[in-house]
Amino acid sequence: MRHTVSILTAAALALGATTAIAQQSGYTGPSNAPKAAVQGSDSGPGTAQLTTVKQLLSTGRDDQPARLQGRIVSFEGDERYTFEDATGRMIVEIDDEDFPAGQTVSAEQRVELIGEFDKGRTRDEFEVDRVILLP
């Protein structure tokens, strides 16, 4: 049992060091989602319109389906990331399984986020249902 705990502790420390390095050079997202979750038909909201960070922050409605195109520029912790497009930045919430399976997402990679706007009393953010890598 002690040996197992030591191995898990070492693995956790190694993962923490990797995360710190990734944050310095730009975010590199997880890629452990099952392939079935990202293949096939679109699992995002069917009525989601392409919009910008500026439009969502200024006129977005709570629970409004939307699509954003830009870059995930940093990891803020607890499934929260900073997303940037040509009009601004906002916090987005992305579960690990919503990233593309088997693919790395860097701060330079353009992505499309499909999800819904969460208009809060103190903070607005975008809850992501799916991340799509753009060419």
From TrEMBL:
Sections of the chain in a coiled coil: none
Coiled coil listed as a keyword: no
Gene3D superfamilies registered for this protein in UniProt: Bacterial OB-fold
Region (Disordered): 26-48
UniProt key word Disulfide bond: no
Xref: Pfam families: BOF
UniProt signal peptide: 1-22
Keyword entries, A-Z: Signal
UniProt name for this protein: YgiW/YdeI family stress tolerance OB fold protein
